[in-house]
Amino acid sequence: MTPLLAIRGLNCRFETRAGPLWAVRDVNLDIAAGETLGLVGESGCGKSTLARSIVGLVRPQAGSIRLDGESLLGSGGMSLAQRRQVQFVFQDPFSSLNPRRTAATLIGEPLDVHRIGTRDERRVRVKELMRRVGLREEWGQRYPHEFSGGQRQRIGIARALALSPRLIICDEPVSALDVSIQAQVVNLLAELQQELGIAYLFISHDIALVELFAHRVAVMYRGRIVEQGDSGAVWRDPAHPFTRTLIEAIPLPDPAAPRRSFNAGGQPGAVARTNEEACAFLESCRWAAETCGGVPVPWRNIGPDHAAFCHGAQ
Which residues pair with 89 in a beta bridge? Predict the structure, then answer.
């Protein structure tokens, strides 16, 4: 079955004074219709660059991105019809909203741009969207600064829903919110997916949150996907040392509670890197062997839907 979104061999490079900086390296990902793919990794690893390349905000140097089998990287960029199918929810719910426009105007803007319906039909649609994301209709005349952070993010979600997209890219949509509000927003996204069959690319640095919300997870390190598979399988049996490091770093509410540990001895940086295609995590890895420093890294299948970019994956 053709995936809703298929990414193959994607590379994104930026030119800097120090030379080319590879933000995304040879990324291959699939997202099925109605599925949530969680993309996790540390800050600066290339998650947002990958997301922006999907919607045309960053032009990749190589690779392909296809929506329902049709390329999103044509000479003219995404077509108008494709833009309706892929929408974006940004990380900061305040800076992503025009402070001089009311909530109703912000939510209805995609309808105006794409000239969908009459003015009265758009007004009805905006009220429907506000109700759907848990906002009162009478709040439509308020400005962004009059809302809380969670309410502003609900406005952003309503705006993304306006065109009835099939895929919504959520770029760390809850990282700027309090923990209790994070749960409300994530629950809202889950309810909308169940009702509307939307697919999500959910970007986060919180692997525990992704494990709860996503069907599948992809772990990114220095622009590469180093592990991907069913979220439960990756959580229970992480195969890449960077994934294990992320899980070990999860803070626990009870400081006396036992922490998950994958310590197998060894010292980070004990193996020298002699090949450009060798493992990028080598300098931080406690499990590195001599092979890791000089031989290109292979993909190893761990299970039916679980693979890792690591020599030692089992």
Answer: 170
